[in-house]
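name: query_chain
kind: protein
chains: 1
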Amino acid sequence: MSPKELMYIEDALSHEQFLRTQCMQAAQSLQNPELKNYANQLAQQHEKLFQKLYALV
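structure:
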């Protein structure tokens, strides 16, 4: 893997981690159970994407 490709993956990892954190924070602050559940699902999806990207490194 080239250094530039590695930088792209590291950048994507950072974005996925940020998005997961944002979804988790939103889920904690939401009162509506449906929205809370949806935000938690999004957080899980971002965690899965993070793990897939991490496996590339």
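note: The chain has a mean pLDDT of 97.
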